[in-house]
Amino acid sequence: MSDKTNTLPQTEPPSWGETFRVYLEPATLRMLFLGFSAGLPLLLVLGTLSFWLREAGIDRTTIGFLSWVGLAYAFKWAWAPLVDRLPIPILSRLLGRRRAWLLLAQAMIVTGLIGMALSDPKLSLETIVWCALLVAFGSATQDIALDAFRIESADMQRQAALAAAYQTGYRLAMIWAGAGVLWIAARAEVVSAASYQHTAWQTAYFVMAASMAVGVLTVLLSPEPLRKILPPSRNAAAWLREVLVEPFADFLRRYRWQAALILALIAVYRISDVVMGIMANPFYVDMGYTKDEVAAVTKIYGVIMTLAGAFLGGALAIRFGVMRVLMLGAVLSAASNLLFAWLGSRGHDVQSLVFVISADNLSSGIASAAFIAYLSSLTNVNYSATQYALFSSMMLLLPKFLAGYSGKYVDAFGYGNFFTATACLGAPVLLLVWLASRMKTPARTVDGQQQE
Fold first, then answer.
1. Could you say which DSSP state residue 15 is in?
2. Distance between terminal CA atoms of the chain?
3. In the predicted model, is pLDDT for residue 318 greater than 80?
4. Which candidate, 325, 333, 330, 334, places its Cα nearest to that of 362?
C-alpha cells in the first residue's frame, strides 16, 4: 500500500511544532476523555479480572478459558450495522445517533461492573462470568460507536493524532483499571485477615463503575459529528441490504483481491501481544510480585511507557507514513515478548521487571497508534462504524481464540516456552506488512469521493 494516501498533502513535511499542535485541537482533546471511557472496561473483564481470579484460587486453565469473554470484542461486527444505522428511541433524537449509542453502551458497562462487584468468584463464578459478558458487550458496543465518532470527527490527515489521543486516554484508563484497582483492593484489605478478601475487590469494582462518569459527561458535553444524511430505504429488504450487506460489499468493491491480504494482516497484527497478555497477571502472581509492585511497575510506569510510544507512533506516522511505523511496531512487539521469557528465569526481580515492561509497553504504544491510523484509512465514512468494527473484530478473533488455551499451554510447558512461542507468532506479520506496503490501494472514501 502506498504511503502517499496516509501523509499530509504539503510538499514539505510539517515542522515538529505544527505536527504536535494538533494534539491541542478540541476534537483531539475529546478523544482523550472518550479513550478513557473505552479503556476502562477492558482490563476489568480480562487482565485485572485474571489477577482477582488467580488470587481467589481459580486455576490457570480456567482463567485462560474465561478469557473468551473477550470474544465479544471479536464479534462486534455482527451488531455494528445496527449501531451504524439504527436510531435509539428518544435518545437519538435528543443526542444524535453516535452519542445515543455511546450513552446506552456506557449504561451497560456500569450495570455489569456493579454486578461483578456484588459477586464472589469463590462462591459464584458463573455470576461473575455473566456480568463480565455484559461489560464486554457494552464495551464492544461503545467501541463501535466511538470508532465511528472518531473517524467522523476529523479528516484523514488528523486520524493518527486522534488515534494517539485516544490511546492516551485509553492507557490512562488502564492505569486506573489496573494499578488503581490493585491499589484500592490492597488498601481495602483488613490486616491479619485471609490473603483473599472479597470485600476489598468489591470496593475496587464499585469505584471503577463510578469512574465511567468521565465518559458519560464527555458524551453529554460533546457535539454530534456531522455525517451524511442518507435517503430513506424503499422497503424493509432494501434497508437490510443497506445495513447488513452494503458496508462489507463496499469494502470488497474498493479493494477487490487485495481485501484478502488486508484482512489477513488485520487478523494477525496484534497476535503476539493479545495471546501473551492473558497470562501476564497470573505470571506476576506466580512469580511472587505483590499488588503494589504490579500496580506501580506494570500498571502505572508501564502505561506511561505505552503513552510515550503512542505519541511517538502518532508523530512518526504523520512524518514518515503509516506503513513504515506499522512495520516497526510489528518487529518490536514480537521481539519484546522474548524479554518475558528471560524475566521468568530471574525470579522475583523488580528491576528486571521494570526493564521488560519499558521495552514491551513502548513497543505496544508505537504499534497501536500506527495500526489504528491504518484501520481508519481503510474506511468509507458512510459505513465507518460497521467497517471499522469489522477490522477491529478481525484483529481480535484469532488472537482471543488462541489466548483461551494460554493457561493450558503454560500448565503443560511453562511460562518460558509460552512467551517464546508468542514471539514466534509475530513472524508472519512482518511478511504481511511488507506485502501490504507494496500494494496500491484506493484512498479513504468520503461521500463517494476519494480523499487524498
1. P
2. 14
3. no
4. 333
